[in-house]
Amino acid sequence: MLYREVPKNGDKISALGYGCMRLPLKRRAIDEELAEKQLLHGIDQGINYFDTAYPYHGGKGEIYLGKFFTKTRCRDKIKLATKLPHWSTKTKEEMDKKLDEQLSRLQTDRIDYYLIHALNGTLWKTAKERGVIEFINDALKSGKILNAGFSFHGLAEDFTTIVDDYDWTFCQIQYNYLDTHNQAGTAGLKYAAEKKMAVIIMEPLRGGNLAKSPPPSIQKIWDRADCAKSPAEWSLRWLWNQPEVTSILSGMNNDLHIKEN
């Protein structure tokens, strides 16, 4: 496994992160036995960044991961990321309560990387009015969260505003070779990096679509390369070739995909 450094704290984060939004399912619930096997394999191969959120798997994702890390005693081997569902809170006190609930669900005393979830310009303005900056400051001071960041789904101009509004350690953006001018885009990636923020990439394969066979015109170009690569490899390497990228999240639930990534 290769690792990249978080500029503001020196943490070494695995270049491949484990996205826990799409854990394997069995009868519409998390297949706990298979998920445990896959998560442990990822840790054994050097993955040390695991990303979840309050609503994942119908609200059961954090609960499962709490059980998993307690059972396997792997918590101190990894960096755990989760997110504040700010849309469900109207005051700082409600945010405090939500964080305490997440700590309980995850069976841990701290969140290594805590994000304000799925921001855009309007949602950021509302979150600030409701006390989110005070909430972040107090959570950092108490040690309940160790690093503050945000995930983003909005317009490019709103991204730079949010970056400039707080001393964030990191951010998470949707980015791939189709999204260079969508949402934060390449300009946002570089802007955040210039601000010494770590940048975590979500949707590197556009929900798996970039892992499918490409149009013939694209395949013809790829065939000119010295070494054959799968569509997924082209997509991931394109991202890793950009030094501003800290880690790429992959929602892995297939043994072959995990091995390839």
Q: What do you see in this structure?
A:
By secondary structure, the chain is of the alpha/beta class. The chain has 10 helices and 12 strands. The chain has helices at 32-44, 61-72, 92-105, 121-129, 132-142, 156-165, 185-194, 216-222, 231-240, 255-260; strands at residues 3-5, 12-14, 16-19, 25-26, 29-30, 49-51, 79-84, 113-119, 148-152, 170-174, 198-202, 247-250. The chain has an 8-stranded parallel barrel with strand order 3-6-7-8-9-10-11-12, surrounded by 4 helices. Strands 1-2 form a two-stranded antiparallel ribbon. It has a two-stranded antiparallel ribbon with strand order 4-5. Strand 9, helix 6 and strand 10 (170-174) form a beta-alpha-beta unit. Helix 3 (92-105) crosses helix 5 (132-142) and helix 6 packs parallel to helix 7. The protein is globular and about 55 Å long. It starts with a strand and ends with a helix. The relative contact order is 0.14.
Brief descriptors of the model:
single chain; 261 residues; alpha/beta; eight-stranded parallel β-barrel; two-stranded antiparallel sheet; 10 helices; 12 strands; 19% strand; globular
Low-confidence stretches: none
Count of alpha/pi helices: 10
Helix and strand composition category:
alpha/beta
CA-to-CA gap between the ends? 10 Å
Order of helices and strands: EEEEEHEHEHEHHEHEHEHHEH
- Indicate the mean pLDDT: 97
Give the strand order, joined by hyphens, for the main sheet: 3-6-7-8-9-10-11-12
| Secondary structure: number of strands | 12
Strand content: 15-25%
Shape: globular
Overview in brief:
With 261 residues, this protein is α/β, with parallel strands linked by helices. The chain is 39% helix and 19% strand. The strands form 3 sheets. It has an 8-stranded parallel barrel, surrounded by 4 helices. A two-stranded antiparallel sheet has the order 1-2.
